[in-house]
Automatic annotation (TrEMBL):
It is an enzyme of class 3 (hydrolase). The lineage of its organism: Bacteria, Bacillati, Actinomycetota, Actinomycetes, Pseudonocardiales. The active site is at 273 (proton donor). Keywords: Glycosidase, Hydrolase. The keyword Hydrolase applies. It holds the Pfam family Glyco_hydro_20. InterPro entries: Beta_hexosaminidase_sua/sub, GH, Glyco_hydro_20_cat, Hex-like_dom2, HEX_bac_N. It catalyses: Hydrolysis of terminal non-reducing N-acetyl-D-hexosamine residues in N-acetyl-beta-D-hexosaminides. Residues 100-275, 281-416 form the Glycoside hydrolase family 20 catalytic domain. The keyword Zinc does not apply. Residues 35-96 form the Beta-hexosaminidase bacterial type N-terminal domain. This is beta-N-acetylhexosaminidase. GO terms for molecular function: beta-N-acetylhexosaminidase activity.
Length: 463
């Protein structure tokens, strides 16, 4: 019978009690709400007579349900019930609350498009790990994924590219295979509603003024009139937006569509990696941030914007270059989400073994992710892992890159220290990986990639 020592992320406190509960199939726990509990917190009590949940809010009730699901065992994570007889649960009380209010994961659907069904599946995986923000990177040089009826060429032209770079070697090799896709407004509304029912807020991102070649391919005037194709390479593209009034008006109209589809409090506007950036590019981002703020929302921008003009109050900074950027953001009066590249970029290689597929970035092992101790304090909203998809061209590749490291990240985001790597590894190996198996997640095995998870001959760019 699974015990409280199987739980992941680790709860704040557990009080085991004698006996066990035989919970009949289909019998739901009794749920009540208490304003005395902290946001997203819950109390789960299991007795021989049944299961009771007291939660701060709907999100807390959902998290309690995930804890109960873990205690039932891996079969509780299957899409259909194959369990026979009552669920055998240990008696006791779990009292729990999250360490950070923002526990996010970015999914890049611009470089490689993920279908609506695949995004819904990824949302379920976030919810199973008590993560509560899905950051959708919707636009980039290699594709525009958000349908804007007023500007149809954004998806007619910008949503697909004729081929893709093979690996990352900055050479001429391409796969010769067209790639594309986009989301209609109702698809995205469905994703938002689906996520919301699982305690997850969706943060959309329209990246400007760099990472914009797909938009420029659709409407050349956005880039000063030069005609280009949707980019087929990876890396940082030299094509950036012309920060003119007409371009600003265009993106204000785009953001109005985004604001209509996504009701959440935070809207991403990018601001990162702008080759040849001028002060006017900085003012362009600041004006779009003010537009988002004027609509009652909070803009989210990457930490490069700290080098430009002052941003409106309430702007959230994604500190990706290093933790020092987070300190700068707080000192400037902004809230910050910590997502440093050298810690939580899950597209980075997981070992230095030659079988590691398309090895890019730093070596960031499961132990490295689990051992990260993000600084807390005033202005720090929370933390976010990043799943960039230049080299993740299928759901199987996303699974491999994200898991089980995202499970380690979930514990960092939810649970306070001290860290016990051996204990975490035991919970992961003996209990949590079977749950991922039941969910159909093709994670990276602890011993290294399986033969079909390798990419022989496809070059990377390790650091």
């Amino acid at each position: 019978m699974p015990g409280f020592g199987t739980l992941l992320p680790r709860p704040v406190s557990v009080e085991p009690r004698p006996g066990e509960c035989l919970l009949a199939p289909g019998r739901e726990p009794e749920v009540s709400f208490s304003p005395e509990l902290p946001a997203e917190g819950y109390r789960l009590e299991i007795t021989p007579d049944g299961v009771w949940i007291t939660a701060a809010d709907a999100a807390g009730a959902h998290h309690a349900g995930q804890t109960l699901r873990q205690l039932k065992g891996p079969d509780a994570f299957r899409a259909a019930d194959i369990h026979s007889g009552p669920w055998r649960l240990p008696c006791g009380v779990v009292t729990d609350r999250p360490r950070f209010g923002w526990r996010g994961c970015l999914l890049d659907v611009a470089r490689h498009f993920r279908t609506k069904a695949e995004v819904l599946r990824f949302t379920d995986l976030l919810a199973a790990h008590k993560l509560n923000v899905l950051h959708l990177h919707l636009t980039d040089d290699q594709g525009w994924r958000f349908d804007v009826p007023r500007f149809p060429r954004l998806t007619e032209v910008g949503a697909w590219r004729r081929e893709s770079m093979v690996g990352r070697h900055d050479g001429p090799e391409r796969d010769g295979r067209p790639h594309g896709g986009c989301y209609r407004a109702d698809d995205l509304r469905e994703i938002v509603a689906y996520a919301g029912a699982r305690g997850i807020t969706v943060v959309p991102e329209i990246d400007v003024p760099g990472h914009s070649r797909a938009a420029i391919a659709a409407y050349p005037e956005l880039g000063g009139g030069r005609r280009v194709d949707v980019w087929t390479s990876w890396g940082v593209c030299e094509d950036v937006l012309d920060p003119s009034k007409s371009t600003l008006d265009f993106y204000r109209a785009v953001l109005d569509e985004v604001l209509d589809v996504f009701p959440g409090p935070v809207i991403g506007i990018g601001g990162d990696e702008v080759p040849g950036a001028t002060p006017e590019h900085g003012r362009f981002v600041a004006r779009l941030a003010e537009h988002v703020r004027s609509r009652g929302r909070r803009p989210f921008a990457w930490d490069e914007v700290l080098d430009g003009p002052a941003l409106p109050p309430g702007t959230v900074i994604g500190a990706w270059r290093d933790e020092q950027a987070g300190r700068r953001a707080v000192a400037a009066g902004h809230d910050v989400v910590l997502c440093p590249e050298d810690r939580v970029y899950l597209d980075h290689r997981q070992s230095d073994h030659p079988d590691e597929p398309i090895p890019v970035g730093y070596v960031r092992t499961l132990a490295d992710v689990y051992g990260w101790e993000p600084p807390a304090g005033p202005g720090v909203l929370g933390v976010q892992a990043q799943v960039w998809t230049e080299h993740l061209d299928s759901v199987r590749r996303v699974d491999y890159a994200a898991f089980p490291r995202l499970a380690a990240f979930a514990e960092v985001a939810w649970s306070t220290g001290p860290r016990d790597h051996a204990g975490f590894l035991s919970r992961l190996r003996d209990h949590h990986l079977p749950r991922l198996d039941a969910l159909g997640v093709e994670y990276r095995p602890l011993g290294g990639p399986l033969p079909w998870q390798t990419r022989p001959g496809v070059p990377g760019r390790p650091r």
